[in-house]
Amino acid sequence: MPELPEVETIVQGLKPHLQDATIKQVTIRTPQLRWPIPALTGLLKHQTIRQITRRGKYLLFELPQGTLLIHLGMSGRLCLLPHETPPQRHDHVDLLLTDGRVVRYTDPRRFGAILWTNACPLQHPLLKDLGVEPLTEAFTEAYLLQQTAKRRRAIKPLIMDSKIVVGIGNIYAAESLFLAGIHPAMPAGLLTKTQAARLVPAIKQILERAIAQGGTTLKDFVNGDGRPGYFAQQLEVYGRAGLPCNVCGEPLKSHVLGQRSTVFCEQCQKMHKEP
DNA sequence: AAAGACACCTGTCCGC
DNA sequence: TGCGGACAGGTGTCTT
User: Fold this and answer.
1) Between the CA of A187 and the C1' of B3, what is the distance in angstroms?
2) Residue A224 has what pLDDT?
3) Which nucleotide is nearest to A111 (CA to C1')?
4) Does A57 qualify as catalytic in the annotation?
5) A3 catalytic per annotation
6) Looking at residue A1, what is its pLDDT?
């Protein structure tokens, strides 16, 4: 479910409601996500949530004694419920707050993770080697060109590589490359300065627009307030294989690239020539 | 060093 | 209606 815009939407949705909330009890119904969930009850009980932030697709709940790291994997959700609601299948973890509200983690596929660190969270093994944040000044044309230089890998898997730039998943990689007019299978090392100068702003624009729309609801993504995201209505290529390109009318093609299905327009997205 | 394959797990959809 | 197979928003780890 979540790429950077969805995670950011959740952070923005939860933060105003959870800042300074105190955890009363923790319920772990399923201890095994991607990794075993640590024994959180003793760590979290009576602690107050200081801040909720994001690094890549990781959510960080900063508490006085350490940081709760949450990743939503492919199918994870985090919902704030007004009061105790009977848990359903796949509702794995509840943080019960002192005022009766519940932060509930749901994840059918269990590819997500809930971890704890009492050291600097950014030094955690899962976070320390993450690449730049795409919506900061660190993500520039020069940085992208430096990362693509001499790489034979296709440009799409490269921009989805969290060691290079975080937060771009299969939807937004496809959408960004379409907006920039770049073929997803183009070897990264062939990316020209002109193309990089289009791709970096395209990625920023796509992610910002998606955040403004509250993310993309495909299956049942909802933010912390239970509202869906509306960016799905603006997808140009993702999920549209075989349908006509909204720009030129050509049927959109689909290839598998890096084991991920990749939709693009042969007419509008080129390897070498400018579109 | 870099690139690719694989693994993890459940739900849904499509064709027969 | 049932069943098998393909596919799904991610990413750490293992193999080439």
Assistant:
1) 12
2) 52
3) B8
4) yes
5) yes
6) 65
The token duo for A109 is: 């596929």
- Does this model's pTM top 0.90? My answer is yes
CB-contacts to strand C (7 A)? A 1-3, 6, 34, 56-57, 71, 73-74, 109, 111, 125-126, 160, 162, 169-171, 215-221, 259-261
Tokens of A179: 């907006």
For chain A of 275 residues, list the mean pLDDT of each consecutive stretch of 10.
91 94 97 97 97 98 98 95 90 97 96 98 98 98 98 98 98 98 98 98 97 74 58 92 96 96 97 65
| Active-site residue, selected from the candidate residues A110, A209, A253, A260 | A260
Question: What is the DSSP annotation of A50-119?
Answer: -EEEEETTEEEEEETTEEEEEE-TTT-EEEEESS-----TTEEEEEEETTS-EEEEE-TT---EEEEESS
